[in-house]
Amino acid sequence: MNARPGRGRVVAPLLIVAASLAGLAGVLAIAGYDPVLALGALWRGSLGSFDAFASGTLVRATPLILIALGFALALRGGMLNIGAEGQFLAGAMAAAWLGVHLAGWPSLLAIPATWVVAFAAGLIWVVVPVVLRVRYGVLEVISTLLLNFVAEALVSFMVQGPLQERSGIYPQSDPIADAARLPLLPGTRLHLGIVLAILLAAALWFYFSRTLGGFRLLAVGTGPRAAAITGRIDVTRTAALALLVSGGIAGLAGAAEVGGVAYALYPNLSPGYGFTAIAVALLARLHPGAIIVTGVLFGALETGAGAMQRDAGIPAVIVYVVEAVIILALLLADARRTARSPAVAGAA
Amino acid sequence: MIPPALQLRNIHKRYGSTTALAGAALAVEWGETHALLGENGAGKSTLLRIAGGLERADGGPIEVGGGRAVIRSPRDARRLGIGMVHQHPTSIPSLTVAENIALTAGWRVQPREIRGRVLELSGALGLPIDPDSYAGRLPIALKQRLEILKALAARARILLLDEPTAVLAPLEAEELLRVLTGFAGVGNAVVIVTHKLREALSAASRVTVLRHGAVTLVGNSDTETPDSVSRAMLGGAGRPEPSATRSDARTSEPPAIRLQALDVARDGRYGIALRGAALSVLPGEIVGIAAVEGAGQRELMRAVAGLIEPLRGVLEVRQPVAFVPEDRTTEGLILPLSLAENMVLGMGEQAPGVAGALVSWKAASAATADLIARFGMTAAGPEAQAGTLSGGNQQKLVLARALARNPKVIVAENPTRGLDVAAAAEVHRRLREAAAGGTAVLFHSSDLDELLALSDRLVVASGGVLREPERRDRDLVGRMMIGAA
Amino acid sequence: MTDGIELLAGFLAAAVRVATPLLLAATGETISERGGVINLGIEGSMLAGALAAAIGSSAGGPWSGLAAALIAGATLAAVFALVSVHAGADQIIAGTAITLGAVGLTGAVYRAYYGTAGAGLSIPTLAPVEVPVLAEIPLLGAALFAQPLTTYFAVALVPATWWYLFRTRGGLALRAAGESADGARAAGVRVRATRTLAVVAGGALAGLAGATLVLAQVGTFSERMTAGRGFIAIAIVVLGRWHPGGVLVAALFFGAATALQFVFQASGTAVPYQLFLMLPYVLALLGLAGAVGRVRAPRDLGRPERAS
Q1: Do B74 and C168 touch (CB under 8 A)?
Q2: Which residues of chain B are at the A interface, by a Cβ-Cβ cutoff of 8 Å?
């Protein structure tokens, strides 16, 4: 996998997205749905009006952008964080737990406090995979995936146990205090989380392109042996840190979701954000600025899919197929590029 | 007339914009040992790989035993009785000797049966080996023996060997060549790719010389002379004399490298690689380490470079120390990154354009462009990927980067491996220049000729012990390398 | 006293039943990983197999269900092989995408086919086949000799896989491809073809695993019903040290660990059930930490063959 952010390779991703949507329309037509009605609903539900865009698409895009930024950070260091789902839930649990107890706090303190604990929780959720990887050589890919299910079960336990709402009837937590709720853009459901996502993208962009640390992370991801021997970089430490912070960022996404959308903890809080974010990051070729764009694109796709289900009776989960096709097509396109690049001159 | 065992005619091969072979040819008779000679980059390995099915020619007919042959893969080659022994062993380290042989030969997988067949085969050929050892655990000479056994077990009658003696000590090499000529002598055919003139003329009955992808000489080894072959390899002038300027060791100054009673653990494995090592290198001195693979030289170089923590003993190295690693493509450079990025990788905080935690890529690129010009590298510019450079230019980049820090000590592993004559001479010149400026140079080379040409002083590493030979004598050093003197 | 024995016999039978899909999927993944390909898409193959089994069984009985599952699992694995083996793309990302796509595909097809209600779906299932006499053995009889045919098949696959891997030319070539693609190629092995076949076989077995989940365990399909069993199967491969026998032991261990929750629920303890839901995943993590390091994975696992 290329850990390097793309430079100007924009056309292929756009073509792939367009082709995937066209493919979707074709499949829907074959399956007996009305593709015009379906795609029309997709458009109206996501980008067709300001309200759909702000209250739907951008709200959906916020966790995707955040998690994708974390994914890009880890992959730049050569680490695959495909367990963001669990880290997101860990962050959400922490934010909800603290948020419930913050009544009477000023928002200026309460909101950052939830962010801090959520970041810490997401990071802690990665500590186990990191320790397993560094000390025992367990592939972080498997361990983070397994921890996704542990997180799900833990949320389920929390909302029926320690964090269950006062009446004890519903499997969810008490609503968080007003102070811990993120301010909204008046007249919409768009919350402060999007600002957090954009700021983080800017920070990562600066880190990647203007700092020695950001470059060294890239070196670790693209050539770990040379990074260690020629660059004298502690490769293990660098990669582990990137993975930990990546988990923290996914936790932050959990806090934004609880503080800006859900206002409480309940099961199924994430409709697979952790996996969609992989497509978001890869389509953006790990470039933080492009991640904002692809995050909004996938936010639109998933929001529009909801409208498609309501208006045209097409199951919304079909967007996961579109996302999978986009990822696979990107992988194929990248592999073709590598194959076509000039043969590295070695001993002839 | 019996048709030749193997005949390749008018072979062409291009990689992108590089021409590897331009009308090369090779004809090998049954019963002969044929040496294929040429400098690095002359195309001899490529020609061999085409005959072995690992590469496909862009054009040119191949005949095996007089019949037109299409060789698309190693499988095809094997069906035609062609066996290939690669420069780097291709055996599968975690399989046993017997399993490796069975895999190549396509034997039925019955542990007891294949074990017996291996013992039988190795006994008959006079190439003893333990069938139950894991291939990865064999010493290098046995790894190579396994490669040959694999080819012969697959009933190869035409054996192609790529630089088979490169990793062997002189005595081991002689032994191997004797077995090969014996095999050819009973009606088979052997092709040896080598750049060692002396060896080719003594072991082979005929030689073919390639230069720039075309044949410049085909002849009998008893009528050709080292001089005529050398001219064919290098085109006209012959081998450039190693420049006689010896750098001046500064005896009045304290040593730049000093080690005493130094023990170093084996790199990546258990055991001791270097025990009780003592060595000092003065500023301005070039010391060469002669050793066969795994004799402790790698650990010595890396301990001096500060990459391995020694177990015990004294190790004093003046800073800054620059390290030129053996494998420039995975250890020295990151090929997908640009030249400027590789520059920053190696120089870290000292790199031009780096100020504290921040990098100005503009400044780094400008400084890199400057280095490209000063070292005469052929590169599209500082933004070009390191992987697009030729081996010689990659090595120049590694060296330029190392020298840009004005190091007090340079540690280099096989600094000219895979380079053609001109590029190798350039590397030698740069190292001498650095030494003349007071830098201490410690280097290792697998090529005894290079060691003798470049070093002021020679030290032999053998079995983890460092010793200095009494005389700078090929035979003495060769015997010391394998612990026979 | 008899209660205790009945409970224990029930526990053992449940353990074997739960272990069956894990064993099938893990055996398939063992073949794939021995060839050097780690396929996270087996979770997706399993899910697709589960839905295909449900649809196939409703249409033509359990045997049609099994066949449909086999094809569904193998098809997804073939797509995975196209991207990861032939194009040489990152296996982890490709596998994740396959699983993601399978979640979407099965969800959409399920809702389109059965409507959003879906619940109460009843499917012809595989009946247990009792081995005469042996099934009467107290305690173990029900667990070992009164299981659906798929369980016997899964167990028989263990020695068959061992024999294939360690006693046939194809198996040697497969192991060589997994240890060193370059070395295998030089030895005359068609690395891509070998790996592709191994991946597709692994996917077919994962599909079958999904089918047993539906036809022999749960009796119905629900969205995302595999719940990470494919990932656990991958952990089982590591725990079983890439060896069919080891995989059998590890799969049974997981079956037992999961079946424990039935025992505890039956005995009415106060321990929240969610903690038991966590148990297999936590055990897998602990097991991985203990198992890895003492044994080496195939050396070229996860690495595409370099184009030459």
Answers
A1: no
A2: 15-18, 20, 40-43, 45-46, 307, 323, 325, 329-337, 341, 344-346, 348-349, 354, 356-359, 361, 387-391, 418
Chain A interface, mutation test: which of B15, B17, B334, B361, most A Cβ atoms within 10 Å? B334
Interchain contact, B344 vs A212, CB within 8 Å: yes
Cα distances from B314 to residues B254, B264, B274, B278, in angstroms, run 15, 11, 13, 9
B window 122-151, beta carbon within 8 A of C: 150
Chains touching C by CB (3 or more pairs below 8 Å): A, B
Q: Which of A208, A206, A182 is nearest to A196 (CA)?
A: A182
Q: If you count residue pairs, one on A and one on C, with CB atoms under 8 Å apart, how many are there?
A: 155
Confidence check: pLDDT of A8 > 50? no
What residue type is A27 in one-letter code?
Answer: V
By the 8 A CB rule, do C202 and C42 touch? yes
Residue carrying the six token digits 């072995």 = B52
Q: How close is the nearest chain C Cα to the Cα of A184, in Å?
A: 32
Is there a contact between B92 and C183 if contact means CB atoms under 8 Å apart?
yes
In words, the CATH class of domain B6-234 is: alpha beta
Q: Best interface-test mutation with A: which of C76, C229, C281 has the largest number of A CBs within 10 A?
A: C281
Q: What ipTM score was computed for the predicted complex, to two decimals? A: 0.89
* C-alpha span between C8 and C3 (Å, rounded): 9
What is the arrangement of strands in the sheet containing B62-64, beginning at the earlier edge strand?
Answer: B18-28, B6-15, B62-64, B67-68
Beta-bridge mates of residue A299:
none
Q: Structure tokens of B193?
A: 């790719």
Residues whose CB is less than 8 angstroms from the CB of residue C147 and which lie 6 or more positions away in sequence, other chains included: C13, C16, C17, C20, C128, C129, C216
Chain B residues with CB inside 8 Å of A341's CB?
Answer: 387
Domain ranges of chain A: 11-336
How many CB atoms are located within 10 Å of the residue A19 CB? 13
Q: Are the C-beta atoms of A86 and A245 separated by less than 8 Å?
A: no
Residues of C in contact with B104 (CB under 8 A): 187-188
Nearest-by-Cβ selection for C112 from A139, A148, A315: A315
Distance from CA of B110 to the nearest CA of A (A): 34
Architecture of domain B257-481: 3-Layer(aba) Sandwich (3.40)
Per-residue pLDDT of chain B (485 residues; tens, 9 = 90+): 688 999 999 999 887 666 788 889 999 999 999 999 887 778 888 899 999 988 888 888 899 988 888 898 888 898 899 999 987 788 998 899 999 999 988 888 888 999 999 999 988 888 889 999 999 888 878 888 899 999 889 889 999 998 888 777 778 888 889 989 999 999 999 999 987 788 888 889 999 999 888 899 898 988 888 888 888 887 755 455 554 455 567 778 899 999 999 999 887 667 888 999 999 999 999 999 998 877 889 999 999 999 999 999 999 999 999 999 988 889 999 999 999 999 999 998 888 889 989 999 999 999 999 999 988 888 888 999 998 888 888 998 999 999 988 999 999 999 988 777 777 888 899 999 999 999 999 999 988 888 988 999 999 998 889 999 988 888 888 888 877 77
Query: What pTM does this model have?
Result: 0.87
Tokens of B106: 């396509």
Asked whether A89 and A152 are in contact (CB, 8 A), the reply is yes
Around Cβ B383, how many Cβ atoms within 10 Å?
A: 15
Domain ranges for chain B: 6-234, 257-481
